[in-house]
What does this fold into?
Amino acid sequence: MKTDKKLFSYETLAHAAAGAAGSVVGMTTFFPLDTVRSRLQLEDHREAKNTLAVVKDLVREEGFSTLYRGLVPVLHSLCASNFVYFYAFHGLRHSISAGPRGASAEKDLLLASVAGVINVLTTTPLWVVNTRLKMQGIQSNNEERVPVNREHFHGLMDGLKKVYARGGIAALWAGTVPSLVLVSNPAIQFAVYEALKRHVLVPSPGTSGSVARPSAFVAFLLGAIAKAVATLITYPIQLIQTRLRHGHNLGGLKRDAGMFDMMIYILRRQGVKGLYKGMEAKILQTVLTAALMFATYEKIVAFVLKLLLRNEYTPIKH
It folds into this structure.
């Protein structure tokens, strides 16, 4: 079928591979900022200083290596997650919209949301384990806490097995509800990025209105703007998602607390500002990471399509 050819094509595969590679480059470069973000989100005792001050505190307290704690499993998960997301988005986009000519901000937002749901349902267990690996071996200093058993994970697969053994399927998909709400984040990001790209770039000659590939600098700039918009809108839910994935030992809050339970708890203890703790580091990390990811992604896609496709989209045989 024609739709199958669009969904299972070298073009879609190229977008997925480029998205995965771009995300790995971006995260590797700016990973210490993600460490600062997660520590501020999860440690109530840690003062929300500026990002550089928190980096200095962490290095002084725990050594330089703590800035890269959990990097390898994060890269594995990010690679898988972005491959799924980019493949789903571009596969659906080319199947339904018949390529860039049928693209619009509304369609991009809808398709990005669908791709986000597919990604969340597929890869949430990887991120549950990653959140716990990142905080492994770090003592909690919350003022109110109840005993909690923390197992030591020897990598991603070992973590998946132990989380499942201890809490079953439900534990592997902890934080799924806020994650599904946060589908709006990459959806907004993608829709803004594609809309900006259509407005900034002129159509390529002889391509019936499809836009040219942006330069690395333009892609970096557009990616940064798109991610900043998405992060500012959705940050409080991201904070709650991180806490639910990590699990908590907070006194006065039930162990199986949901999204709204956690939100109310934070509001009561820390006020509205508690929902935005660590946002400076998150903005820096996600904006810079997304910008570098899109710059890398566009270059890889342009190279692969030019090398392999020669403007002819050949379906993958399956």
